[in-house]
Amino acid sequence: MNEYKDFNKQLIAEFRANGGKITSGQFAGAPLILLTTVGAKSGQPHTSPVAYIPDGDRILIVASKAGAPTHPDWYHNLVANPRVTVELGSERFEAQATVPQGEERDRLFNHIVSQMSGFGEYQKNTTRIIPVVVLERIK
């Protein structure tokens, strides 16, 4: 697990140093945001790099955890505390997270897969329904 945390720390540092751009490794050029959630148990802030799709004024993210059998920690955190901080490029803002269900989730997931097919592969690799999260900027 330390390897994963170290990798994320390096990705976060590069993101912040380059105004939101990742120039090396598997995420080079990928559309990423930094998502800061408040820990469901700890109450402490946690920042995670997450791929995103713009959807009008909203941001769509996927709690895929690369098709693992469990949801990522950041997902549990935002369900418990849906007010999050988003870093998009060099901009930082507060957002409200919601988790659509049923047909709305399916519609959004299919929209995301049409642009990032890897999420469809992740869904095939797990029995859980991978959640879609909608982030809306708090004005």
UniProtKB/TrEMBL annotation:
- Cellular component terms per the entry's GO annotation: plasma membrane
> Reaction(s) catalyzed by this protein?
oxidized coenzyme F420-(gamma-L-Glu)(n) + a quinol + H(+) = reduced coenzyme F420-(gamma-L-Glu)(n) + a quinone
Q: Which residues form a coiled coil?
A: none
GO MF term list: coenzyme F420 binding; oxidoreductase activity
What's the superkingdom here? Bacteria
Q: Which family does it belong to?
A: Belongs to the F420H(2)-dependent quinone reductase family.
Q: List, alphabetically, the NCBIfam families matched.
A: hi_GC_TIGR00026
Q: What is this protein called?
A: Nitroreductase family deazaflavin-dependent oxidoreductase
Organism of origin is Dictyobacter alpinus
